[in-house]
Amino acid sequence: MTVVIVTGMSGAGKTTALQALEDAGFLAVDNLPPGLWPALARDVAAAGLDALAIAIDVRSAAFLDDATAALEALRRDGYAPRVVYLDARDETLVRRYSFTRRTHPLQGGGLSEELAQERDALAGLRSRADVVIDTTHATAKDLRTRMQRLVGDDAFALRVRSFGYKRGVPTDVDTVLDVRGLRNPFYEADLAGRPGTDPAVQAYVFADGGLDAYARFRDLVRALAGSARDAGRGSYTVAVGCTGGQHRSVAVAERLAHDLADVFAVEAGHRDLAEALAEHGHASDAAQAADGADDAGDAERA
After folding, report:
1. Minimum mean pLDDT among 33-37, 176-180, 289-293: which range?
2. Half-sphere exposure (Cβ direction) of 30: Cα atoms closer than 13 Å
3. Which whole-number Å values give the CA distances from 212 to 182, 206, 280, in the listed order?
4. Residue 257: what are its φ and ψ, rounded to 5°?
5. Strand 51-55 relative to strand 27-30: parallel, antiparallel, unpaired?
């Protein structure tokens, strides 16, 4: 199991760093006393997880002396903890505190004095750091990218999900595309029971101006996902909706996944396809669609 300890000066970016690791698949825990690290690592490993990130800073000043023993205990247990220390120049930290109007955790008088006390308190952890990152001139995006590269996970995922409006609009997505304006195969007897993955259904959906409308959807998704990636996001999720979640939304989601695969790592899934096919009595198609949805969910969780 990979164990990363994130520490450093208040205002240097620990929250951003921890969130970046969480987006990379780490179980992230903030400000846990070092004496509890070995037990937590054992519990996390026993649960089958393979990545743990723990942040600690001067808020846990009373426990900082235990950090060295905790690191040694992790190594004895077979882990190889990496300590990442975040730092920045004092004038930068003062400016960040002034901008956010936060109070320094030590609250020992003037901010300059508090920063000096903090550096002294964290000197032991800094001396044991495997990586020291100076965030003086770094943006949040820069730090996220650095952390993700540090753990070998700087890939960006575009997730495309089809759904049916009559079964509810998903809320855990970034953008919803309404494709109910495209041609609806539901009213064609030989297409009504088929899924949007069927070439005949796709040909019908994208005929008579449908392809032009799709091209605008595709360009929009490419631009939005690209902006999210450039901003340091780890993923972007687009939901494509039609009435039942069987024909138009599935066809568009499938084509988006195909057309944007050269730009992004794309994960496609169809939330309501199996249920929609079951309504038409296509049990075998429904089972196949359910398997595909499960595979997409497994890929997303992985």
Report:
1. 289-293
2. 10
3. 10, 8, 30
4. -60, -40
5. parallel
